[in-house]
Specification:
This protein is of the alpha/beta class. Helix content is about 35%, strand content about 20%. Strands 1, 2, 3, 4, 5, 6, 13, 14, 15, 16, 17 and 18 form a 12-stranded mixed sheet that branches. The protein has a 4-stranded mixed sheet with strand order 19-21-22-20. The protein has a two-stranded parallel sheet with strand order 7-10.
Length: about 550
């Protein structure tokens, strides 16, 4: 059976019964049908207040991964299986995941609900429109864009220089033709012509703001602080000066509340927020994480892409801003991906190849070393594929042990929670160890130094090459008082470096290029763009959309 067929064959519990497992009653939920619900404001605020006391929080387990390959790693699958596995050994577990973007669903990556017998459901709903959160974020983002252009059209009393407008429109689809556009054509009544841009909705600063705001008041404060451009006198203009913050927040009043669903084994799961990890900060909402920590003894969450992206941002942005830290980290790896990093082509991954596996392990070793730099206990989850041989698995276990991290076989895709019992036991053991969490750089370091630390310590570069434009912007940001913000590095997910063609681990003292920086003053971080990364992906030659269909009963097929 395919993933979607397994999900469609599952017997779902009414979501009210799922909530009862973690002390969330019927009156605490606003229902979106039988199987999806949002926490009410009262319940959300109650749980966030409870989680503000570290003594009342559960243990937090972060799931991350080695560098992605075309062979797949299964980070969400392992996250879900681990949550189910913890329930199997009698632990009160809750899962916290990001919402899938429509772009990957119709592009090349697919959805983000796990796979096989380790999925969150209803899978089709979660992967598509779900409860409308990303649509609300898209509308709020584009309302800001419309209000900026209307301000200029109606006389421009703030004196905004149209050439400096940094706010982009967005759509939650991969549409490369919208990366660079010209708007306002047609005549005087159609607006002021200028160059503009689109980004995918999950890279929008509004997405980051929703995921980092614990209340409507904080949401409005962050929205008002968004920098939208400069005046002709080169003074920075914030969106709050347009006096429309409340209208934008009104579109987001439901999007800020976590969504409750379930796994195939009925483990409660908060699925909320979906910032891209190679452009935005790649973590589910702080509200979902805090609510889960208040409801469960063990919370399993994941951060997007590999440990050099989502996990680093989880530590240096999300945790730092909210006074939380993981009690343990689990790095997902597969024999197939290790061999691919060792130079094996995708069509040959089914053949045993120990030398290639050992060579490709260099990639996983870097991620293990990087996670240890944050002072968090680490283990490796080997996500098992049917083609893996005993010799290959034994070699991975040996290499992980030598790198200072135990390796545990996870068979969640095939067996669900039963296949992750050993991993669950290992995770519980890890959370019992002393964690000495620390950030990789201090906030008060200069912006260039923070970028240098990330490049040297996480991406293993010998130096950083700053484009002249980037260096000029960095100096302006520091002069404007934004030098103490964390860095959100936008780079390829397909390599530890900036270059997607570099597999394995970096060799030699390469230069890490930073071509641009952008201030996300509302979200509270600085985005640094490395290499050729873009914030509006394109579709592949054969997009996943070619395989998706729906019949007269409304049954969807081909979604994965």
């Amino acid at each position: 059976m395919t993933d979607i067929e397994i999900a469609q064959a599952a017997e779902l519990l009414p979501v009210v019964q799922v909530g009862e497992k973690i002390g969330v009653g019927e009156s605490d939920l606003d229902f979106y049908g039988k199987y999806k619900a949002k926490l009410t404001f009262d319940k959300m605020n109650e749980l966030i207040a409870r989680a503000s006391d570290p003594a009342k929080r559960g243990k937090l387990i972060l799931v991350t991964a080695m560098t992605p390959t075309a062979a797949g790693e299964g980070k969400s699958t392992v996250t879900i299986a681990l949550g189910d596995g913890l329930r199997r050994i009698g632990k009160k577990s809750v899962i916290a995941l990001r919402e899938p973007s429509l772009g990957p669903c119709f592009g090349i990556k697919g959805g983000a609900c796990g796979g096989g017998h380790a999925q969150v459901i209803p899978m089709e709903d979660i992967n598509l429109h779900f409860t409308g959160d990303i649509h609300a974020i898209t509308a709020a983002n584009n309302l800001i864009a419309a209000l900026i252009d209307n301000h200029i059209q109606q006389g421009n009393p703030l004196g905004i220089d149209p050439r400096t407008i940094s706010w982009k429109r967005c759509v939650d689809l991969n549409d490369r033709a919208l990366r660079n556009v010209v708007i306002g054509l047609g005549g005087r009544i159609d607006g002021v012509p200028r160059e503009s841009h689109f980004q995918i909705s999950v890279a929008s600063e509004i997405m980051a703001i929703v995921c980092l705001s614990k209340s409507i008041s904080e949401l409005k404060d962050r929205i008002s602080k968004i920098t939208i451009g400069e005046t002709f006198e080169k003074r920075a203009v914030t969106f709050g000066e347009l006096k429309c913050t409340g209208a934008v927040a009104a579109l987001l009043k439901d999007a800020i509340r976590p969504n409750l669903v379930q796994t195939l084994e009925h483990t409660p799961a908060f699925v909320h927020g979906g910032p891209f990890a190679n452009i935005a900060h790649g973590c589910n909402s702080i509200n979902a994480t805090l609510c889960a920590l208040a409801c469960g003894d063990y919370v399993v969450t994941e951060a997007g892409f590999a440990a050099d992206l989502g996990a680093e941002k989880f530590m240096d942005i999300k945790c730092r801003m909210n006074g939380i830290s993981p009690d343990a980290a689990v790095i997902v790896a597969t024999v197939r991906a290790l061999k691919m990093h060792g130079g094996v082509s995708k069509q040959d991954l089914g053949k045993e190849n120990l030398p290639a596996l050992e060579k490709g392990f260099a990639n996983l070793r870097v991620h293990i070393e990087n996670m240890k730099k944050f002072g968090v206990p680490v283990a490796v989850a080997v996500n098992k594929f049917i083609s893996d041989t005993d010799a290959e698995i034994s070699l991975v276990e040996k290499l992980c042990a030598e790198a200072g991290a135990g390796a545990v076989l996870c068979e969640g895709w095939e067996k669900g929670g039963e296949g992750a019992v050993k991993l669950a036991e290992t995770a519980v053991e890890l959370t019992g160890k002393d964690s000495h969490f620390k950030n990789i750089y201090p906030l008060d370091a200069p912006i260039e130094e923070k970028i240098n630390v990330l490049a040297r310590e996480i991406y293993r570069a010998g130096s950083v090459e700053f484009d002249g434009k980037a260096r000029k912007k960095i100096k302006a940001l520091e002069a404007a008082g934004f030098g103490n913000l964390p860095i959100c590095m936008a780079k390829t997910q397909n390599s530890i470096t900036h270059d997607k063609s570099v597999t394995g681990a970096p060799e030699g003292q390469y230069a890490f290029p930073v071509r641009d920086v952008q201030l996300y003053s509302g979200a509270g971080f600085i985005v640094a763009f490395a290499g050729d990364i873009v914030d509006m992906p394109g579709l592949p030659a054969a997009p996943a959309a070619m395989n998706i269909d729906v019949d007269d009963r409304g049954i969807i097929s081909g979604l994965f």
